[in-house]
Specification:
alpha+beta; six-stranded mixed β-sheet; four-stranded antiparallel β-sheet; 10 helices; 38% helix
Length: 369
């Protein structure tokens, strides 16, 4: 395991150069997903799926490796990909399609046990060994390149082994992120005391706090869990919580683009980013800007759950909801008890407190405490 406890966590796996290449590719894909008119099923395949498979070492021009299944429609295109030990099915849907509206199809190539569905930004890993259970991940997730690495990168493993490796890594990623979030909110000392610092204790605490489903099965080894917990607890004890390194790439121009959505909201807020004035003057407007950044940079978990709408939930109505720049995702203040706390939580999670400063009526905002 790497000894670097800065921008790459101990529990993360994979080649750094590969991650950098695929991460750069995801930035290009995002540009193709926002064009008008929105890409249809075939367009999503050309913009997102095929370039990704190629980056993962798949010979996409070889008909013995990748072949279309039927004729593409405006809504969907389907492919079969040959992998060692069996084939898998890949479905691409029109950008913006709510994948949850369409049950996962259970027609698989011979020997296949899983498939992928995507609308470009949302990706579903469908596990047909478990009643077509869907595992949801996103182009915007930090772990996106590594999940696909487990599934598709050229290696002599069976289809089942690829599925097992991907699910194991996905669960490690989820638990590590939830634990980091819990430590950010409650502090390492509180988490250690309440859980006893043991893997079972922390899993139970995450369930108790509603951050893991009470009925979810954690299918990781004891050493996997211990690795995650030792890193997070010891790192916070030393005052070196894992940095949100990607946030270092945020520019003034990017933030100002988000500010344009809320620039007409009036208030007494004054905010700066890297000592440059921002075009936002309300507290709710600042909350929106930070939430949009969180969604764009793969940290939607930092947004209070009661304020976030995401697929397959229906889009909220009313004037206090705004789209977050990702199809089907909205920030709503209708049920928000305290968006000041949301701002505080997002600044901490995004590691922006030292770059973004704000005052409200001349008083630092958000206030301490």
């Amino acid at each position: 395991m790497s000894e670097d406890k800065g921008k790459t966590s101990q529990w993360q796996e994979g080649d750094l150069a590969f991650r950098s290449t695929l991460s750069a590719l995801t930035q290009s894909i995002k540009q193709y997903l926002v064009v008008q008119p929105k890409p249809n099923g075939l367009g999503t395949a050309q913009a997102a799926l095929l370039p990704t498979l190629y980056a993962l070492g798949q010979d996409i021009w070889n008909l013995n490796v990748l072949r279309a299944d039927g004729l593409p429609t405006e809504e969907r295109a389907r492919y079969h990909l040959h992998l060692p030990g069996g084939d898998v099915t890949l479905d691409t849907w029109a950008v913006g399609t709510a994948l949850e509206r369409f049950p996962a199809r259970d027609t698989l190539p011979e020997g296949g046990t899983w498939g992928i569905r995507t609308n470009g930004s949302v990706w579903h890993l469908v596990d047909f060994t478990d009643k077509a259970k869907v595992h949801d991940f996103s182009l915007f997730d930090e772990a996106f390149p590594l999940i696909l690495d487990k599934l598709f990168r050229d290696s002599e493993t069976t289809v089942d082994e690829r599925l097992e490796a991907a699910l194991r890594f996905t669960q490690k990623t989820e638990i590590a992120e939830k634990l980091e979030q819990l430590i950010t909110l409650q502090g390492a000392d509180s988490v250690r005391e309440r859980s006893g610092g043991t893997p079972d204790g922390i899993i139970n605490l995450l369930k108790e706090e509603g951050m893991l489903d009470a009925n979810s099965d954690v299918e990781l080894t004891e050493s996997d869990l211990q690795d995650i917990f030792d890193y997070n607890l010891k790192a916070t004890e030393m005052g070196v919580m894992r940095e949100a390194g990607i946030m270092e790439d945020i520019t003034l121009e990017e933030i100002q683009r988000h500010c344009q959505v809320v620039k007409n909201l009036k208030g007494n807020l004054k905010a700066t980013f890297d000592n440059k004035q921002l075009d936002v003057s309300s507290r709710s407007g600042l909350y929106y800007v930070l939430a949009a950044l969180a969604v764009h940079h793969g940290r939607p978990d930092a947004i209070p759950a009661q304020d976030l709408t995401r697929p397959p939930d229906p889009a909220p109505s009313g004037g206090r909801s705004r789209p977050l720049g990702k199809p089907g995702w909205y920030l709503s203040l209708e049920n928000s008890a305290n968006f000041t706390e949301g701002v505080r939580q997002l600044l901490s999670a995004l590691n922006l407190g030292y770059r973004l400063q704000a005052t409200n009526r001349g008083v630092p905002y958000p206030p301490e405490g």
